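Per reviewer request, we include the raw input and output of the structure prediction for the construct analysed in the revised manuscript.
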Amino acid sequence: MATAAVAAGGLGMATEMLPGSVAVRRRIGWTGPDGVVPDVPAGRITRRKVTSKARGTTTNVVTIAPYGVSDAAARTLPVCVMLHGRGSSADGFVALGMPQFLTQAVREGVAPFVLAAVDGGQASYWYGAPQRMLQEELPGWVGAEPKAVLGISMGGFGALLYARERAGLDAVALLSPALFRSWADARAVGPFADEGEWAANEPLRHTAQLRVPGRDIGLWCGREDPFQDSARALAAGVLPATESFGHGGHDMGYWRRVAPDALRFVGARVAANA
């Protein structure tokens, strides 16, 4: 048994050093354990359709209040905006298990807060009209000025755009943020008309604007995530209060694993500044 353990440990050390080992680990699913949605009651989910003048369309708003908290009490709680990833929607956070993760966080002692999500488009990177919707319309829909933002993948890009315009945010939580170190990478997937438009909005080009007194940034990104290098570049620029680069891919298994840490991070910051 001891020999096997040593061999396994040696293999793990070796694969860290092999050329292309990240791609190999990603391909074979060797990215750490998947997170599990906790077996607890879900927080109260409210869904409604609203008309966004900024986007020129009807969109969905999903709010999640802590389990057992009344409507009246929920209206007094801090709000954390959640921005979904490419190809997802506001309801994607329900599928991810955020209503249960919120219950778990509060039961473990995190001060209660409300989660709010809105549809931002399939591949918008929360730029342009979706960002105007967040800045100008969302506070009225949720009945409060949000105190935190949590973004996943494309939503991480959008969360950093959002934070640049809202100095009053207490916390910015980023899970596998989709950021681009070059115009060639951004042009392949983003909504930007040209390199100048991208450069004016790319968070990696504006890290100084994200360092705001009284605000904390939390960053979680897996070692097998294609955006890992970009996330590390962001960390070097913003010096997050919390960062984690454990094994993990760009997928729900990883996001479920780190969701409890992200919600504890948000809850602690908004409570401290309430």
